[in-house]
Amino acid sequence: MGTICSINLFEDGTDELYEELFARLREIDNEFALDKKNSDLYRINSRAFVEPVTVGEDVFSVMEFSLLISKITNGAFDSSIEPLVKLWNINSISPHVASLEELEKILPLVDYKNIVLNRENRSIHFLREGMGLDFGGVAKGFAADEVIKICEQHGVRRAVIDLGGNIYVYGKKSNSKDWNVGIKNPEYPDSAPLVRITVPQTSIVTSGIYERYFEAGSKRYHHIFSPFTGAPVENDLASVSVISKNSMLADGLSTAFFVLGERKSLELIPKLSSAFNIKISAIFIKKNHEIKFSRRFPYTRSVLYDDWKIKELYE
Questions:
Q1: Per-residue confidence (pLDDT) for residue 314, from 0 to 100
Q2: Contact (CB, 8 A) for 252 and 69
Q3: Residue 240: CB partners within 8 Å, gap ≥ 6?
Q4: Helical packing angle, 15-32 and 139-153, nearest 10°
Q5: Are 48 and 117 in contact (CB under 8 A)?
Q6: pLDDT-wise least confident of 100-104, 191-195, 215-219
Q7: What CA–CA distance (Å, rounded) separates 284 from 269?
Q8: pLDDT over 70 (residue 192)
Q9: Which end of the chain is more exposed for a tag (fewer CB within 10 A), N or C?
Q10: What is the 3-state secondary structure (H, E, C) of 221-267?
């Protein structure tokens, strides 16, 4: 997963159950790994232009879900972004600032409309040579949902799952109260949280400019790419958090909303809630120290730093 994963099952945790959960996480990691030659994702990126590649149910269902998010967000979320990830190489020790010429060459390869799925034989096919998939925007959310399924099967009463920015709080606390979850301060991510929300069982996923980045000259380049420009998104947002019981949906939307910005995202939330038949809420933390919440935000919230303000509540 490229991050530290932690699971706390409190009094229901046993060695056997923890082993089952982490075995499932390792299985997902192996299926979605970009650099493991036996992974479904590696085979797709190596062969899917030459011929349709048959994959396992996990990868195929995540691909179907990703395409649905892409269609509803008009491409703001796009799993075919792998050529850009490879070009910028932000997660390596030698990141690269892409030139306009390089972006002009690569951008035509980033287009979810050029991915063809066949549910009957679970195959994935690319219509353009050089395309590639990167499920970094949804795989951890999928993994969190799978962990919750196992918890339900074993009758776990309460749990906290943390997959590196993907949080899932399950059940109730031991005092039967809801959970307090902190949203990081993008300027001081290792310090006390900026926002605290009190939520029932749900997932909270955050995408922010402080997570992975490099600096070249006087400019910082973060890891959230725009499928439209090919470069790290430049807008007034520092982070976006999405709250939903479907962690894979929250994962994909935290990226899409960061790309779209708050206004377009807010317009999409009712459509997305209807399409997926699920409640979706969002928190937009801006570089100018404003914090904005989606309409009819249903959870108790508090801001823990005096110099950050709730500028406007959308009603």
A1: 58
A2: yes
A3: 206, 207, 208, 254, 257, 258, 265, 282, 283, 284, 285
A4: 150
A5: no
A6: 215-219
A7: 13
A8: yes
A9: C
A10: EECCECCCCCCECCCCEEEEEEEECCHHHHHHHHHHHHHHCHHHHHH
